[in-house]
Here is the input.
Amino acid sequence: METAAFFSELFLHSLSLWWVIVPSIFLGLIVGAIPGFSAANTIIILLPITLVMEVEVGLVFMVALYCASRMGAGIPAILVNIPGTAGAAATPLDGYPMVKKGQGQQALAISFTSSTLGGLLTTVIALAMMPLLARVGFYMHSVEMVVVMLFGISLIASIASKNTLKGLIAGFFGLMIGSIGADHVYATPRGTMGFLELYDGIPLIPALVGLFAISEAFLVIEGESILSRHAQERAVVGSWQQTFEGVKITLKNWWHVTWTSLIGLVIGVTPGAGAAIAAFVAYQQSRTFSKTPELYGTGHAKGLIAPESANNGVTAGTLIPLLVLGIPGGATAAIMLVVMQYQGVNVGPRLFQEQPELGYGIFMAMFTTYLLMAFTILPMSRYMSRVTLVSTTYMSPLIIGFTLIGSFVPREYGFDMFLAFAFGILGYFARKTGYHVAAILIGVILGPLMEQYMLVALQKADGNFLTLFSSPLGNILWVALVLSLALPPFLKHRQRRRQQTVFSEGEG
Amino acid sequence: MAPTQERPEDSQADKRQIGGELIVPVLALAFTLYYIASVIDSPWSAQLNAFMVGSVLIVLVLAFFAYAAREVLTGQATLGASNLLAPYAILPKRAGFIALTLAYLVVMQWLGLTLTTFLFMAASMLLLGGGRRPVACLAAAAVMATTALVVFVILFQKRFPKGPVEYLVQAPWLSGS
Here is the structure.
C-alpha cells in the first residue's frame, strides 16, 4: 500500500513537470530527426543550462530529450528513408515500403504507438525488476556478446533468402567495410587507403545516410513522386482513419510489442550494446518466428513494430546500470552521470536508499514522457505524412543537401561528406542490380562490434577458439541461435511436405 | 496457332543483362584483396577479420563469377549493363544531378556552406524540373540554405567551411564577443 502511494505520488509529481517534458519532447523529436545529431551531443551543447537547473529538472529534461530523440529518429527513416541514427537503421526496412504504398500516416502511427508502448512497458518492468536487471550486465561477457552480435548479423542470411549469393556477398562486403580502421589491440591501420579519417573506423552516419538516403535520392528522380499514382491518391485523401488504423494494428500486436521491447531492454542493460543491435536482433527474431516471413521488407507492420519497440526498450535499459551500479551504458547515460556527480548525487545502490524519490523519479519521468508523447506526437502523424507528397524535383536535392550536411555534423570532417557520397553511389549500384543495401549496412554497423568482442574473448583465452563455447549462458545463447536459424526452414519444409501429402491423398 | 518467328535482336534484348550485377562483387573482391595486403605483416589480432570474413567473401564472389560465366556462355545472359542505366530518358538528368552533388562537395570549401547549398539546391531543382517554376526552385533553395546557416552555423556552431555569407553573418557576432 505504501509502495503504491509512493509511486502514485511520484507519478503525479513528474506530471507536474510537464513544462519541462513537453518542450524537451519537441526538441528531442527535431534533434532525433536530423541525421548526425543525437540526444547525447544536444545534451552536451546544452550542458551549461542543465548544470544550472535544479538536479531533478535537469535530469527530467535529459530523460525526456533522450526518449523523444529515439522516437524522432524513426520519422525521417519512415518518410524519406533517412535513418537519423544507427538505432533507427532497421526502421526503414518496412517503414519506407509502407510509405511507398501510400500508408505513410499509418506507418507513423504504428511507429509512435509501438515506441510509446515499448517505452512504457520497459519502464514499468525496469522499475519492478531493477536489482535483477542490473545484474544482467555482469553475466554478459565478451563470449555472450559475440553470440548476441551473431543474432543481429544472421539477419543477413534472412535478407539473403531471396537471392542467397547476392545477399551474402552484400552482407560480407559490409562486414569487410566495417573492418576498416585501426585494429583494437595494436592500432595497426587496416584498409584505410591512407586516409587518417578512417583510423577510427567507418563513421556510421555517412554510411547510413549514403546507403539508404542518397542512393534513394538518385533513384526516385525516375518518377514525379516517391509514391505510385494509386498511393498518391490514397495519401492525398488521408484521414484520421489511417492513424486509428495504425494504432489498432499495433494494439492488436501487443504481444509482439512486448517481447521485442523486452529484447531492447535486455540489450540496453548490457553496457556497450546499443539501440542498433537491439533493433536488428528484434527484427531478425520477429522475421524468424513469423508465419509470413516473406512479407518482411515489403511494408509489413510487424517489421516496423519490432525495431521501434526494441530501440525504445533500450532507453530504460541504458539507465539501469547507470543508476543501480554507477556504470553508464551509453553516451547519454555518461553525460547524465556527469550532471549527477556535479550536483553531488551519489549513483549506485545508495541513490535508492538515500534519495529514492530521485532514483525512482527518473524512471517515472521516463514513463510520463512516453505517456505525454502519445498525446502530443500521435496526432501529428497525419500532417507529417504529407511530406511524401512533395515532388521529387524538390525532394531529391533536399534529401541530398540535408544528409550531406548531417554527415559532416558528428565529427566535423569534410571527408565524411565525400564518404557519404561514395556510399550513396555504392548504394545506387547495389539497388539497381539487386543487392540489398540493408545487408551491407548490417555488416558495417555490427561487424566492428563483433570483431571487438571476439578479440577480447580470444585474448582472454590465448587465442583458443573453443572459449566461445566455454560459458553456460553463452552455450544457451548458441543453442537459441542455432534453433532460431534452423527451426523456421525445418518447420516450413515439414508444412510443405504435409500439404503435398494431403494434396496427393486428395488426388488419389 | 503457328509459332512466331523470333528476331535475333529481340532475343538478344530479352536476355538478362548481367554486366551491372558484376560491379558490387568486383568492388568487394578488389577491396578484400587490398585489405588482406594491408594486414599481411600485421599481428594476428589485426588479421582476424581479413581471413575470417575476407576468405568467405572471396569464395562467394568467385562462385558468383562462375555462375555469371555459365549464364553468359550458355547464352542465357549478356554482359550488358542496361539495368544500371535505364530508364535512358532520365539518364542525362541523373548524370547531371550526380555531377552537381560532387561539385557541391568540392566547391563548398571555397564558397562556404550557405552559398554552395543555395547554388546546389537551385541548380538541382531547375535541372530535375526541366527549368519549370524557377521562382519556386529559388525560394526552396533559399529556405534550405538559410535553415542550414541558422541551425548549423549560428545555433550549433559547427565548423562548416566558411564563405562570404558566413563571414558576413558572423561579423556582428564576433565583434560583439
About this structure: Chain B has two domains: 8-84, 88-176.
